[in-house]
Structures are given as structure tokens and as C-alpha cells.
Amino acid sequence: MIPIAKPVIDREEIEDVVKVLKSGIIAQDKIVREFEGKFSEYIEVKNSITVFNGTVALDVALKACGIKEGCEVITTPFTFIATANAVLYQGAKPVFVDIDEQTFNIDPDKILESINSRTKAIVGVHIFGQPFNIDAVLEICEDHNLILIEDSAQAHGAEYKGKKVGSFGIGCFSFYATKNMTTGEGGMITTNDDEIAELCRLIRNHGENSKYNHVMLGYNYRMTDIQAAIGLAQLKKLDEMNNRRRNNAKYLNRHLNVEGLIKPYEIKHVKHVYHQYVVRLTEDFPMSREEFMEHLKKHGIGCAIHYPKPIYRQPLYVKLGLDDCYCPVAEKISSQVLSLPVHPALSDADLKRIVEVVNSVA
């Protein structure tokens, strides 16, 4: 079986974790601080704050920005549920706007229609590794005094006009096992705002600004040195792994040839890092999506649907009455998408087999 995702863990990660374990200092300490510093250098921001996972990164960022009950936060319905759930954690309301049909990213034109006096922030998602239209969204934020939070959980190393994502607004990254770089679980907040950074540090560590001095309500959201050791090793090879993903995607783009299969669209002025390689199956495709998935699995090709329905159609959101919207493009895309393997562990033989199996349905 060729898996849909596979972390690239080498000898360096293993040896670095062993060093931390042997040191006896395994909670948040100097390795975490080193990881934060190296990540800031990579993203080119002043501050990086580690947390326990990507969902926590979003939660802490929203808390630090003062999002609370009565606030509304605009976001996309076509992403993992954690993006919207983090808004609910604040007692705020996620407001869903539709997406662009080519990139699957939030549509700036739809954002304008949803802004009101309660709107305080926009959480844009760089979906599947391709940056959203940052210029347009930033302009909206500046015109309406809104906070921009970049959900960069799928876009480590992605670039918009030569600048790393996570450096435009407040960046939130996930280091889950299947991401472009991993620490097993883990997350990072990036910002050039020193005040926001200090609030994030307080929130993640019981509101403590010095030993046993707690100035606000905080949480235990810390990363460990064990995780950070893995992160440091992964960060060193992130660009190489992303280049492999991009080359794998180029190979698939060149060789997949089935009527009714729409390959991923990449904007010219961005660096897409292909967290997922997501195709669309239109009505002209020779079989249903379910039949195609069975065909792939039968021939040892992993696949997945990211994402099968807009967030507002999830039972939780229906129960909360947050399904009072309709995003036709998100509905259409959810019914068509299918992810194929693109991860950096794929061999040339793997890529050739994926192409042969997919094209065999023509």
C-alpha cells in the first residue's frame, strides 16, 4: 500500500530525542527556545511561540487578540473543523463565507458581504499548502480594522510573493504527524507584535510572568523539549521535503490524464507546498468518487477526502444553529475532491504506479 501520508523521520530525529531524554530535562526548556528562535528565522518574524498542537495555536492566538463572546470571526467552511472550533472556544461566532473554485481558498469578495459591527477578525486558511489571496484579505482587514489570523497548519514554508506565510498576520502552525513537518503533536504561533507574543506566552503557561507569579488566567499549553528536538531536525530539511512534494505534484500534473479529473491549480505568484494533492472528479469522470476510491485501494493506492462536507453541515454546527448559511462553491467542491499521495517519501516507482492506476480508469 502506498499511504496517503507518511512522516519522514530519520536518524537525526531519533538521536536528538535520545539526547534530550538522556539530559533529564524533557519538559519545556532550552530546546523549545532554540526551536522558537530557528522557526522565527525561517518565517522571518520577531516572535514564535510553541504550543502543544495546532488547535491550541489558534485558540491562544484568538484569546490573545481579545476575541470573546459577542464577537464574530469570518472564516472558510472548507477546512478541518479545528479552525472554526477555535472560534467557538472563545464564545464567539464563526461566520462562514464561500471559497474560490480554483484554489479552494477563502473568497475575498464574499468576505465583504459578511462584515458587520461585531466582526473582529478573519481566519484565512492556506488550504492544502497554497496561500490564500493575502493582499486582498489584508486590504479588507486594514479598511475595516480587523485582525488577520493565518491558519498555516498545512502550509509550512509556503510563500506569497516571496514572503513566507505566517508572517503577514498572526500565523498558526500545526506539527501533527501528517503535516509538511512534524513533532508528532505540536503547534506554533508567529507574530511581529511583541504585545500579542507576550500574551500568548502567558496564556500557554498558567498566566505566569515569573516563577509562581500569575498575572492572568492561563493554561498548560506548553510544548516539550522532546517535541522541539524533533521539530529542529524537521525544520532543517523542510525546504527539501517541500521541494519533493512540489516535484511529485509536477509529475502527477504531467502524467495524469483522465477525462473529468481536474488537477490542482497553482497561482503564479505563490509557492504551493502541496500538503495534499487534491483532484476534482466532475460528472465526466468514468466512475463515482466512491467507486474510484475502491479502485485505488484495490490496487494499493492510499486516498482520502479532504473535506467531505462544509463545516456548517457538521452535526455540532447544525445543533448550534450555525448552519444558517449556504456556500455553493464549498458544497460543490466538497462533493468532488479526492486526495492522492504526494508526500516526500514517495519513490519514482510509487509515482509511476499511482499514475498507471489512476489512468487505467479512462
How would you describe this protein?
With 362 residues, the protein is α/β, with parallel strands linked by helices. It has 2 domains: 11-236, 3-Layer(aba) Sandwich (Aspartate Aminotransferase, domain 2); 238-359, Aspartate Aminotransferase, domain 1 (Alpha-Beta Complex). Helices cover 38% and strands 16% of the residues. A 7-stranded mixed β-sheet has the order 1-9-8-5-4-2-3, sandwiched between helices. It has a 3-stranded antiparallel β-sheet with strand order 7-6-13, with no helix packed on it. Strands 12-14-15 form a 3-stranded antiparallel β-sheet. Helix 1 packs antiparallel against helix 8 and helix 2 (30-43) packs parallel to helix 8 (225-236). The two termini are 22 Å apart. The model has no long low-confidence stretch (mean pLDDT 98).
Summary of the model, kept short:
The protein is of the alpha/beta class and 362 residues long. The chain has helices at residues 11-23, 30-43, 54-64, 82-89, 108-112, 134-144, 194-204, 225-236, 238-255, 289-298, 315-319, 328-336, 348-359, and strands spanning 47-51, 72-75, 93-96, 119-125, 147-151, 159-160, 163-164, 170-174, 187-191, 208-210, 213-214, 261-262, 270-271, 277-281, 337-340. The protein has two domains: 11-236, Aspartate Aminotransferase, domain 2 (3-Layer(aba) Sandwich); 238-359, Aspartate Aminotransferase, domain 1.
